[in-house]
From TrEMBL:
GO terms for biological process: lipid catabolic process. PROSITE patterns: PLA2C. Residues 1-114 form the PLA2c domain. Keywords: Hydrolase, Lipid degradation, Lipid metabolism. This is PLA2c domain-containing protein. GO terms for molecular function: hydrolase activity. SUPFAM superfamilies: FabD/lysophospholipase-like (SSF52151).
């Protein structure tokens, strides 16, 4: 009885991508009742590897959702390292891992980004 009738009788299901905002599911895991301590953020985009984590930090600040400040060293914007750790008081720690980085791509880094 806990399962709605429409679900019991339907042969198909429709799902919504949790990453509708910022192309990442940050906000769905940041609900207060989830009590999240650590987020591992994987970025596979060939564009700005910090866009989702930066935009999430801005959105969370506006909505008063605990999230660490995101500061990217200027020299890393075009040549990202293999991972970043963002920490904040009363906020989850975020480990951000851009796929296209100087460690993974080595001297061929420029071939993998826009």
């Amino acid at each position: 009885k806990a399962v709605p009738r429409a679900l019991r009788e339907s042969e198909t299901r429709d799902y919504i991508d949790a990453g509708l905002l910022n192309n990442s599911p940050y906000l769905s895991v940041l609900r207060e009742e989830r009590d999240i301590d650590l987020i591992i953020s994987l970025d596979f985009s060939e564009g700005d590897p910090f866009m989702t984590v930066r935009e999430t930090a801005e959105t969370c600040k506006k909505l008063k959702i605990p999230f660490p400040e995101v500061h990217i060293p200027s020299q890393d914007v075009k040549r990202p390292k293999d991972f970043y750790v963002f920490k904040g008081k009363n906020a989850p720690t975020v480990i951000h891992i851009p796929l296209f980085n100087v460690v993974n791509c080595g001297g061929k880094f420029g071939l993998f980004i826009e």
